[in-house]
Amino acid sequence: MLHRWTSSLTGALAGFGLLACLLAPVPSWAGAQIEEPLADAVRTALSAAIGNGTAPALVFADEGQRQQCESWAFGLEAKLTKRKPEDLVRREFLQTVCYESKRAGLEPSLVMGLIQVESGFRKYAISPVGARGYMQVMPFWSRTIGNGDASSLFHMQTNLRFGCVILRHYLDVEKGNLFMALGRYNGSRGRPEYPNMVTAARRAWLLSDQMGTQVADAGAGTRR
Length: 224
What we know:
Layout: H1 9-23, H2 40-50, H3 63-76, H4 87-103, H5 108-119, H6 140-144, H7 156-173, H8 178-186, H9 193-223
């Protein structure tokens, strides 16, 4: 189940203010994952997690999982309208974030926070050091655990899959320490600026998720 938490009306309004600030245009904080030697077993596991090199597809475990991601996406759509004005594009993006996050054992709001800070939700973002796409994946990953085609990192789901698998890998390497894993993801391990920004964005998306669910539940109650 998606994580839910409660807050007062004042806290909710403050959270919306925080989200508005986070969604305002800001300089990219994209860094660069550092290419590190991988044990053969780790490389094999990561390659398997990515897939066979073709564009991945959403394959939900069951209808309940599909509905869960659709509900989560619906609750956040309004907050992403300025960045992604086309309804179908926005909905597909959010549902894919939910799917790939859960597939990698990550919280969707954490992934949203990371994308917010890394690329500002720009599909074709390129950092000064060559990191690509929504989750600013370095091209060496396509060679190390993918099919070698770095251009595929501009494909929405491919980028999200790589990013989520890489973040999961860093969390495992750091034994669940999110602060250190985020720093490793950004190439700034041990420094607080990037992890602090991502966790702040994560909190705002969590609040928006909770408020969106309340609105959806109220609408459902009215229709009964």
